User: Which sequence fits this backbone?
């Protein structure tokens, strides 16, 4: 699904030298290299503040902790997302309110969010799924009018541009991302980051992520230990310079897939919204007429990996069933869980690979 080895070979000399410098300096936690990456990422995103942390899940948890929510408060999240989005809400004693998504974009919209708001709603967490931004303006207009903070889950869409000028993750009160190795901007282990334009939230988030201390051994709040280490920071800094190049390569591969599949009625190629660029963290098809699993098996037999993101709605997961009336369902989410299939997507896909993958999909529908 992702070729990190070939990507590393292209930047090997830079990465090896930078990591050796970190080892020689013995400054592994925080320090100047982490600070430099935070500054460079903030400049890239157009955000005032970036705070590195241990992983994307921690980023979401620390962001929620910074809002001083109380047990039982409701937080609106899409039902079609990775479990981490709801997991951190539940861990903090909050209640995830899972809402449906659009069939075309896979993201939530303002009308769906508005319908879910109650007097207990204390935060909204839209997810920019698979590489393009949710339409944020209607959500932000709604949230600002009701004074409800918005946390963007931007783990899959770093570098995507909303309405021609804003980077995804910088539109809400707080943005969060993951640097898991397979991400568009991925490190060589775990890592994450939190973005904000608020001086107050920046100070609060930094304190929470560092054991609740603003100076050593003086703990002003309950915090956690969530830090981006210097070895990961130097890798990310090197890759950040190439992020637009990496995203452009993904877009080129997606366009190739699109052209190959455009006349297959059973396939719906990824929708690209007018309000956002798409950086294709995943290239996700909808395979209709109940043929998704058969296509996956066919491709596996040809040595082609695929992914189903996600096979079960959040509210059907055993750990989350008590948050949702199991006699009901969210129709779009139910459909997507039965139809989505993601093909290999990364910056190293060449024409030979694309020909083989796309040709195999076409062969399946010719049979």
Assistant:
């Amino acid at each position: 699904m992702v070729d990190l080895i070939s990507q590393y070979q292209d930047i090997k000399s830079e990465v090896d030298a930078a990591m050796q410098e970190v080892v020689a300096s013995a400054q592994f936690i925080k320090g100047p290299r982490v600070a430099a990456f935070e500054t460079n990422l903030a400049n890239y995103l157009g955000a005032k503040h970036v705070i590195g942390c241990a992983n994307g899940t921690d980023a979401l948890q620390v962001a929620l902790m910074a809002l001083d929510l109380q047990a039982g408060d409701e937080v609106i999240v899409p039902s079609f997302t990775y479990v981490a989005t709801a997991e951190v809400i539940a861990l903090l004693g909050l209640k995830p309110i899972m809402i449906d998504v659009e069939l075309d974009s896979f993201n939530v919209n303002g009308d769906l969010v508005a319908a879910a708001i109650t007097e207990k709603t204390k935060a909204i967490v839209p997810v920019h799924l698979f590489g393009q931004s949710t339409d944020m303006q209607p959500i932000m207009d709604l949230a600002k009018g009701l004074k409800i903070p918005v946390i963007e889950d931007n783990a899959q869409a770093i570098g995507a541009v909303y309405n021609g000028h804003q980077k995804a993750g910088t539109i809400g009160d707080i943005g969060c991302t993951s640097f898991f190795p397979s991400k568009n901007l991925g490190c060589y282990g775990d890592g994450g980051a939190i973005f904000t334009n608020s001086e107050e939230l920046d100070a609060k988030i930094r304190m929470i992520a560092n054991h609740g201390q603003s100076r050593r051994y003086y703990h002003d709040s309950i915090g956690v230990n969530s830090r981006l280490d210097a070895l990961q920071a130097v890798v990310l800094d090197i890759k950040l310079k190439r992020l637009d190049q990496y995203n452009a390569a993904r877009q080129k591969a997606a366009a190739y897939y699109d052209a190959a599949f455009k006349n297959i009625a059973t396939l719906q190629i990824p929708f690209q919204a007018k309000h956002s660029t798409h950086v294709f963290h995943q290239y996700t098809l909808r395979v209709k007429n109940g043929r998704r699993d058969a296509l996956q098996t066919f491709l596996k037999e040809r040595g082609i990996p695929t992914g189903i993101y996600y096979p079960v709605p959040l509210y059907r997961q055993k750990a989350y069933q008590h948050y949702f009336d199991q006699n009901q369902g969210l129709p779009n989410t139910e459909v997507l869980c039965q139809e989505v299939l993601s093909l290999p997507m990364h910056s190293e896909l060449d024409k030979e690979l694309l020909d083989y993958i796309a040709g195999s999909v076409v062969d399946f529908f010719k049979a």
Q: What stands out?
A: The two ends are 25 Å apart (CA to CA).
